[in-house]
Recover the amino acids of this structure.
């Protein structure tokens, strides 16, 4: 189980400007995803959720990023506006349960394995390689 | 001109495992890019440069990321192992000269405009949108 402390200092960024291909809905897919996440992320075991105007991953909507002090930052794309919310929250829970943000590959939700866009080391936890 | 303070707290992450398509060199393209950057980034006006084992942007080698407290983090791909070093350092200098990391679009090097993979808000400078 993810610890609450891990989730309390974890931020989930959601691109609100992502527009799904061929989707002509007035409310953009990214904005709908943000609403779905906020609706489903309730109680103490929820990350902070922030809407962001463009994560610059425009070719792979919907897009989110997760960051936390001392942990790697991950960016994920190809997420469904409605169906992905529960999966994302599960994945973030696993992330928050680690010390460095690296969830073992096989334990990651399939949407995270396939949708990973980038990962960036923690600013406060250098991992320099020679 | 970028201020030195801006560069001193800026980190340039370089993926050392990036392998250029069709490149059979023993030393991977990402590792060559890291060497080129370290060679050219000299003096006070240089960011901290860290090699990283995989930024998870494997389809768009070479890849770098730039991060700094209070500024957006940017990830760039499609960079040439040898030819891009100077351009990257120029772009990082412009980044370090801003307060939030957002360089006006027209001022960005073309390699950054075309190669942007993702951007992530500063952890310490929330930018929530409704």
């Amino acid at each position: 189980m993810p610890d609450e402390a891990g989730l309390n200092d974890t931020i989930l960024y959601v691109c609100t400007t992502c527009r799904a291909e061929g989707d002509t809905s007035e409310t953009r897919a990214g904005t709908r995803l943000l609403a779905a996440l906020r609706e489903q992320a309730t109680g103490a075991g929820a990350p902070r959720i922030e809407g962001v105007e463009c994560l610059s991953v425009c070719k792979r909507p919907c897009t989110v990023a997760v960051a936390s002090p001392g942990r790697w930052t991950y960016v994920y794309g190809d997420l469904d506006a409605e169906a992905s919310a529960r999966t994302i929250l599960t994945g973030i829970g696993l992330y928050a349960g680690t010390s460095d943000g690296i969830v073992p590959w096989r334990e990651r939700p399939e949407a995270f394995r396939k949708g990973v866009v980038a990962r960036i080391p923690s600013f406060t936890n250098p991992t320099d390689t020679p």
